[in-house]
Amino acid sequence: MPLQDRKQRQFVNREREILVAALELCSTPDWETVTVSEIARRAEVGKGTLYKHFASKDELLFRLMMDFYRGLLDILRTEQPAEYSPISLLERLSGGSSTGLRLPESPVEGVPARQSTSPPTNPPGSPLEQLRAAVERALRYHADHREYRYVVAYCDRIDFKERAHQRWQQDFLELDHAFMAWASPILESGMEQGLIEPRPVDHLMLGISAAFKGAIAMIWSSEDWCPLGDKETVIVAVRDFVIAALVGRYAEPKRFSSNCEQGQETGQR
Length: 269
Prior knowledge:
about 270 residues, Tetracycline Repressor, domain 2, 12 helices, about 65% helix
């Protein structure tokens, strides 16, 4: 292996070790008190070395969040068995095991991005069956990776997004577009086949996203803070709710507004 290639590979491996250390330290309730120095010590690198890879703790956490969602996108794009065995945190971040769920490597400056070995496929089944399986798989992905809950919640905060580097904002948008590009053809196919009530795809995605985020908050808060049911109950209930909402009748905004106005007039009488 040429010297330059070996140095680049060492750079990539060191970066993954830093990410592993950061996730280990930031997967506990006191994650906000974790310092860059502590992450460097856990990764067994100097603080200066860490800054060669990440300019700040925020950049480190943003990278973890992007890896998390790229992993989710990867399993949605790929036809997977109904159940999978999540591998360990270290294996996922270091690219260890070749079986089970695996997060794709993110591009590192000076190193070509690794192409996903799991290209988008056209899974069997009707659009509703595809969506039903995808919603459940996505919910279980979150349930099986609770170590990311603090990092993801932090990067999703408004104040984080407002001060985020312009390049990060672009990454956010590209990720949103990637999820939309995966979901849109399935939703459109469902509407064309008469399985899903016709309405704008953007509206469907907004509804799915809102239901999904609420479900994730319940799953990640653990049973102690979710009196409505355990993890399995939430997954099944939300999966079925999303599918029912897609199939159900769609109330036109104008008609709904008119009904509300009539109700107000009746109340005034």
